[in-house]
Amino acid sequence: MIPSISNNPTYVYASEDDGPVAYGAADEVASDPTIELALRLMDSDFERGEQDRARIETARANQSRAMDAQVAALREAAEHMLIGAAVQGSFGIASGTCAFVAAAIGPAPADPKHPTQQDVIAKNTAEKWSAVATGFSNTAAPVGKLFGDSPAGDDQADAQQARNDAERAGWVADDARSHRERTQRNVDRTQDFASNMIQGEEQTNTAILGNI
User: Fold this and answer.
1) d(Cα 98, Cα 101) in Å, to the nearest integer?
2) Residue bearing the bigger pLDDT, 33 or 92
3) DSSP result, 7-23
4) CATH match for 5-175+186-199 among 3.30.70, 1.20.120, 1.10.287, 2.60.40
5) Is the pTM of this model over 0.85?
6) Rounded distance, CA 198 to CA 195, Å?
7) Hey, is 29 helix, strand or coil?
8) Cβ distance 154 to 76 under 8 Å?
9) pLDDT one-digit tens code per residue, 17-48
């Protein structure tokens, strides 16, 4: 049995964000196999359009998640840079404090040639504080990098990866959108062809009935 066009509606899309909008054609019965083929082609194109729509929705969701991940990674990178700067600054403060203590504890003895036992103890203590100050000073930058630059670098790499993922998702969405537009143009052409076939069939039937 050859179906009528009214039982096989064609489809259009109101916009790229909307779903398919079905509309029926005339109620005449399509008796030509070519018309039936056209209807089947329109159904097939509609199915492909639905698949493209699903691809667009999935790609957009993936793109949104990737962009959110990129923003989160950049924020983490900024936080780690602040942490690294704070740690390095803390070590600098500690170094300055120790140097100040060393200077306060170990003043020059009254008689450098004949230092007292207390002068010797003070000198040794000051040297220890000075060594600690030097240690803090020398390790401030490496420790700051350990807590700041290194994890921030990892975060920036994650942000770049997320950006790449977002770009790829955008390409997939654009490709699906382009394919969907081509599919809709095919539907339009097939619909015009089927309509012309039906009109020609109606005219032929009318002429035959007029001669009976």
Assistant:
1) 5
2) 92
3) GS-EEEESSTTS-EEEE
4) 1.10.287
5) no
6) 5
7) strand
8) no
9) 444 444 334 334 445 677 777 778 777 877 88
